[in-house]
Amino acid sequence: TYTIAEPCVDLLDRACVDECPVDCIYIGDRMAYIHPGECVDCGACEPVCPVEAIFFESDVPEQWQAYTAANAEFCSEL
Ligand code: SF4
């Protein structure tokens, strides 16, 4: 799955939402989140993010790794 990390916080550009073919990117109060159970790993969202907030799960930078769980947690409560 893909993960949205810190650069999205308080920016919420939403370009990724328009790209996602399965509509699995959800908008929270301060950032967007990817639903890990719905993401089909197409990669379409990653290059359109203006702040490079989106990473494939194994590429999430060390300091932002907690965001993988945060994406899953937010989406599990939808
Ligand atoms: Fe949606 Fe594809 Fe991005 Fe997954 S990788 S969130 S399916 S655009």
Structural overview:
There is one protein chain. The protein is an alpha+beta fold. Helix content is 21%, strand content 15%. It has helices at residues 15-19, 66-76; strands at residues 2-4, 25-27, 32-34, 54-56. The protein has a two-stranded antiparallel sheet with strand order 1-4. A two-stranded antiparallel sheet has the order 2-3. The relative contact order is 0.30. Residues 2, 19-20, 22, 24-25, 34, 39-45 line the site of iron/sulfur cluster.
Q: Could you give a quick summary of the protein structure above?
A:
It is built from 2 helices and 4 strands, in the order E-H-E-E-E-H. The protein starts with a strand and ends with a helix. It has 78 residues and is of the alpha+beta class.
Average predicted confidence as pLDDT: 98
Radius of gyration: 11 Å
Largest sheet report: 2 strands, antiparallel
Number of helices: 2
Order of helices and strands: EHEEEH
